[in-house]
Amino acid sequence: MNAAKKRPHRNNWRPFEEAREFARNLKLKDSGEWHIWAQSDARPIDIPADPAGVYQGEGWTVWGDWLGTRRRRGGHRPFQEARAFARRLGLKKFEEWKTWSKSEDRPNDIPSNPAGVYKDKGWTNWSDWLGTRIRRCGHRPFQEAHAFVRGLGLKSQKEWKLWAASSRPLDIPAYPEAVYKNKGWTVWADWLGTRVRRKQHRPFHEAREFVHSLGFMSQSDWRKWVKSESFPDDIPTSPDTSRMW
């Protein structure tokens, strides 16, 4: 165990440059991960658990330099990755984030001002960024949620499910068909914006021939098909009341 390792004399620590290169190759993300690793049996005896103290005045600057997380110049992590990192910090409010972001623990590719960096790239608000929002009987109004989702460029229900499980803001429902039932919801193609509406429906006889070819046996079969992604936009959902014919 590390506790049994004999602490080297100061002159026996690995030289700073070599030790830093070793630390960078570990691909640790922050000082928290370093401290966990440093207490394990994996740490060589000539690599200090407290590099900030050992190498003070010998090359030490900040944790981001030690771990190699500040070597990136220009650019930040993609929004979803950065938000996942921020949520793991367990910060509860903006003031705590502000304090943390000024510390040496912040990797250089995590912006101190995410609201500005990720504007129009996924940013909504601080509670979403920190993961502290408690949903209380509310999602965005249908029209706002509808516009937000269409801007994502998702192509299918499968892509929606993957996105909804990873980076969905808490006020965007995972099951919009239930939340927005009777509030604007129609079909998935409309929700995702994949259906391009045409100016007019097919002529009646042409549309009827197409529907006959599908072999439906009941109105129930029709209703299921109308709600599917394969339903053409130039076929009316309610042919008995359509004004186009």
SSE layout:
Elements: H1 16-24, H2 31-38, H3 51-54, H4 63-67, H5 79-88, H6 94-101, H7 114-117, H8 126-130, H9 142-150, H10 157-164, H11 176-179, H12 188-192, H13 204-212, H14 219-226
Short synopsis of the structure:
It is built from 14 helices and no strands. It has 245 residues and is mainly alpha-helical.
Describe the structure.
The protein is elongated. With 245 residues, it is mostly helical. The chain contains 14 helices and no strands. The chain is 39% helix and 0% strand. The chain starts with 15 loop residues before the first helix and ends in a 19-residue tail after the last helix. It has four domains: 66 residues, no CATH class; 52 residues, no CATH class; 51 residues, no CATH class; 44 residues, no CATH class.
Total number of helical segments? 14
Compute the CA-based radius of gyration: 28 Å
Number of strands: 0
- Mean pLDDT reading: 79
Q: What is the general shape?
A: elongated
Poorly predicted ranges:
1-5
What would the keywords be for this entry?
single chain, 245 residues, 39% helix, elongated, disordered N terminus
